[in-house]
Design a protein that fits this description.
It contains 7 helices and 4 strands; from the N terminus they run βααβααβαβαα. The chain is an alpha/beta fold.
């Protein structure tokens, strides 16, 4: 499963269920520190789109997921090493992939602004 950090904040309590029942998921949390979809569907710049800074890599153990492979990666080399280990082992894996906010948005600000203005009815 690949999830963003914003979406994951709504669902990470399910890790406790996975740990309890011995489920072995492979979870990748793309962590850019923002609720990025809001940039696409709403006007940018709202403070509520900034996420709480959670140490995601500590969650599996906190939720009772013993013996999981857990990693926090920030470089391509670290990600490659984590992927090799995930492929080689029959265990659950939880990988936090750190990316900058700037690298996470594939659309330019101009395109986002244009789309936002097209969907927003004029005031008055």
């Amino acid at each position: 499963m690949v999830t963003g950090d914003g979406a994951h904040q709504l669902t990470f309590n399910e890790l406790a269920v996975m740990g309890r029942y011995g489920v072995k998921p492979k979870i990748f949390v793309i962590n850019n520190g923002i609720y990025g979809v809001e940039d696409v569907i709403s006007e940018r710049g709202h403070e509520y789109d900034d996420l709480a800074q959670i140490n995601y890599h500590l969650l599996p153990e906190a939720f009772g997921c013993k013996w999981w492979f857990v990693a926090k990666v920030a470089t391509n080399a670290d990600l490659d090493a984590a992927l090799e280990r995930v492929a080689a082992e029959d265990t659950a894996a939880y990988i936090g992939v750190m990316i900058s906010e700037e690298e996470s948005q594939p659309m330019t600000e101009a395109i986002i602004d244009n789309g936002y203005k097209l969907r927003t009815p004029p005031i008055g």
